[in-house]
Amino acid sequence: MEHDELVARINEYSRIARERELTPEETLERESLRREYIGRVKGNLRSSLEGIERKK
């Protein structure tokens, strides 16, 4: 799933949750999408930090 699509799905579940209670299946999918998003952010940050060289 592309980044924009992932964010759009998470946002859609957030919008739905404001209107009504999510079903157990929707809640599980939203949590799964959130974990994937957080994992990607952490991976990107880790890559960026590993690419930094310390000046002496």
TrEMBL record:
PANTHER family associated with the record: UPF0291 PROTEIN CBO2609/CLC_2481, UPF0291 PROTEIN YNZC
Organism: Youngiibacter fragilis 232.1
Protein name as catalogued: Uncharacterized protein
InterPro entries referenced in this protein's UniProt entry, alphabetically: DUF896
This protein's record includes keyword Cytoplasm: yes
Short name of any one Pfam family annotated for the protein: DUF896
Keywords: Cytoplasm
Source organism, top-level taxon: Bacteria
